[in-house]
Amino acid sequence: MSFLLAGVLALLGPGFDDVSPNLPNGVSKSRASTAGLTLALAGNSDVLYAASLNAGIWRSDKGGPWHQLAKSPPCSHSIAVDPRNPRHVAVGERNGFSIDIRLNHCGLWESFDAGESWVYLFDPLVVPGCDSEAVPSVSFDDGSNLYAATSVGIAIKRRGDARPSFWNSPKSAGPVTSISSCGGSTWARTRTVLFRTDDGGRHWLTFGIPTSVGPDRIQFSSRGDAYSLAATPTTVVMPCVLVPGNKDNRNSLIAFDVSANRWFTKTLASGNGTGLGGRRFAKSYPGNLLYGAAQEIHQSQLTASSTPESSTLFDMPVQTNWGGPYGSPPHEIHSDTWDMHLDPNFGKGDSAQAWIACDGGVFASSPVLRDSGLSSSRLFNHRWLPHNDGLHTHHIHTLTALELPNSRQARLAYCTSDNDAFYFDPELGWMNEAELGDVNWTAGDIGNPTLALLVRRSAGFAMLTAFRSGIPKGANFVEDQRITIDDDDAFDGPTSFACIQTLKGEKLAYPLLDAVRLVNLPLKTYDGPGRLAPVPGPLGSAKPSIALIRNRAFAANPDANISKFAGWSVERQELPAGTNAFWVSGGHEHPVYIVFAAGKLYRSDNGSWQQLAGESDGRAFKILAGNQYGPAFLNPFDSRQIYVLATDGVKASSDGGSTFHDGRALTEFLTENGRFPIASGELTGNGRGVILATRANSTATLAHMAFDRSNPRHVVACSPFTGIFESSDGLHWSSLRSRLPKPLSAVVSVSIANGDIYAATEGRGVFRIRR
User: Fold this and answer.
1) Residue 136: is the preceding peptide bond cis (ω within 30°)?
2) Using one digit for the tens of pLDDT, what is the confidence trace for 541-562?
3) Omega cis (within 30) before 743
């Protein structure tokens, strides 16, 4: 296999073409962003760093395009920059997923060359009693001393030392969750205690965090509260929830008056926005205190004489469309914020550079204010522009690739959470829909490149796209039109809806998509007054049962509430009890179905159902459910080929499921010879001891498989732990890990089109490996 430069794509490194959308510093049509979730920011206008989930650290020089730092820590979570040297960076990681936690090699990292190379400074597991490698917070003080939060105290690396130590760590009352340095002091916290040092960590003062202030009970129960701390010379601030009464859904804070040694609380006017996404946080900078509220960020400007309660905590915020109410138009910022960072020179002279990290990547303050004559030191007065050129951090759930005739190119469609769906045409480039928001899955027929389906469930929204190249004759939709494919959310995801794949050379053509779906009969849709009522005809009067229904011209009547399921008919009924997923193979004329029901697989070639073998090499196996694609993978071009993820590894069949054998080679690749577990669930971000900033769908150790339409024996498998693996015969496997972007990201979806492999990740966008 050779790896060549694609004509319309930029080659980022050996082995892969990065095909992620790249619309420099612009939003394609709407709030949808070409970059995904960004966790944290550090640096200045010359050297800016961004920590991403599952893609390490990225750097932008002098406001230019971002590039991934290939040697950066893969589980990066927190980041800080030395105020004396912007090329001196420290990163704390979350835990990884190795069965033996010591093999994750996570903890505290340091770079002195702006992230080009890294030194593994510290593994928290070396501290007696520690059972977590998570470092949720890192901070440099003004003397370039480095502090790192761990579950058993604070690691301190003084300027000039080679390694950090715990010799002077304060005795913690639980895991240390956040550290903040200001002036000559550094503060740290647990859920119950504050610590302060004024001499570089040699000595610490301890202050108990109260459980109540006056009538208010204090809880750190909203996302981010317990991991946030901001310190100024006069005030220490932490977001919190105040109860009882209606304060429990307000943006509130508990603050410590340093000079008076007194606690007080404040409640803002806005509601807690973390229910939509993002986190709450507090941060301090010289003369500025920030309060992030997930959908808005408040600023308090402080002076040397400011007293905590007399200062304006807080003024008009920078806000997304979901912020407020404040009686002012929102800023053009993607929703769900995770961090905000001010340039160290912010407020000095004309300097007013600031950045926001959110589900849509990074947004930067504009030198052009919202109105002329306003103060640039107030963040509210700024316009905000996306700063996402080169930042390929989309969290993708499913990827659909469609072969174009007489071309080596393919059309692509993929979905993201909170970033809508993106689709690509070689002639038109990348486009996106802008109405669905949290898009969950996509579907299409690789042999019919005209259409792709983009679905958001459980809201029930979906869209069809013709890649803006003309709606096919007979279709009944327009681009960007919301449709409802079903009003019953009992079945969801790519294992509940499938387009039958057109075999190579198959003469039957289905230009409007030949679709099959899993449903509960009788079918119901909403009528004019908004009541759920049975549809006309047999599908609305059938006895209660689970069935597969089929529509050979899906795009002709795609909206169920309008068409009342016109064009659909029962394809298979009397399905095994408990059926909750299906797969189809064999083309349009003689489709073969497999269903997953109550832990077992069943096959139907002609109407009746036969249970597939439950043994592999003479031993019974238990199927591992929970994956958005699996647990079975049926070759859509050859129904004899089936793969199943069991609790003890991959099982493979080459005779349609009559017999299975252990796929030991693939299992060893997926788990790296047992280093990683065979599991299903949230496998793209370990939330222990950190804020789990993920929007991932459920996946599994065997996340997805793809089969080659031109050569059905050519198969590709992927794992969120270990990357992509390829086989030319279904028996012998090789790793493509060396061909993937570094650091390795969680690969969750793969496709093969014209022999090329397309891969989608949770956090590193989409890329192609070319034949």
Assistant:
1) no
2) 999 999 999 999 999 999 999 9
3) yes
Q: What is the DSSP string of 396-451?
A: EEEEEEEEPTT-S-EEEEEEESSS-EEEEETTTEEEE--S-SS--EEEEETTEEEE
Task: Please give the single-letter amino acid code of residue 703.
Answer: A
Cα 519 to Cα 588, 595, 628, 683: the distances in Å are 20, 13, 17, 29
Q: What DSSP letter does each residue of 62-99 carry, written as one string?
A: TT--EEE-TTS-TTEEEEEEETTEEEEEEEEE-----S
Closest to 757 measured CA to CA, from 501, 412, 493: 412
Which of the two residues, 5 and 249, has the higher pLDDT score? 249
Q: Where are the beta strands (DSSP E) in 46-201?
A: 47-52, 57-61, 66-68, 76-82, 85-93, 108-111, 119-122, 138-140, 146-150, 153-157, 178-182, 185-189, 193-197
**In the structure encoding, which two tokens stand for residue 522, read together?**
């009788």
Look at residue 297 and give its three-state secondary structure. Answer: strand
The answer to whether residues 690 and 77 touch, using CB atoms and an 8 Å cutoff, is: yes
Query: Which of the four pLDDT bands, split at 50, 70 and 90, describes residue 652?
Result: very high
Nearest to 370 by CA among 352, 349, 388: 352
Peptide bond preceding 244 in cis form (omega within 30 of 0)? yes
Contact criterion met (CB below 8 Å) for 430 and 495: no
Query: Which residue type occupies 650?
Result: V
Q: What is the pTM of this model?
A: 0.94
Tokens 């912010």, residue? Answer: 346
Q: Is pLDDT of 373 > 50? A: yes
Q: Are 399 and 758 in contact (CB under 8 A)?
A: yes
In terms of Cα–Cα distance, which of 377, 194, 387 is closest to 303?
377
Residues 6+ away with beta carbon under 8 Å from 237: 229, 230, 231, 253, 254, 255, 256, 282, 284, 289, 291, 313
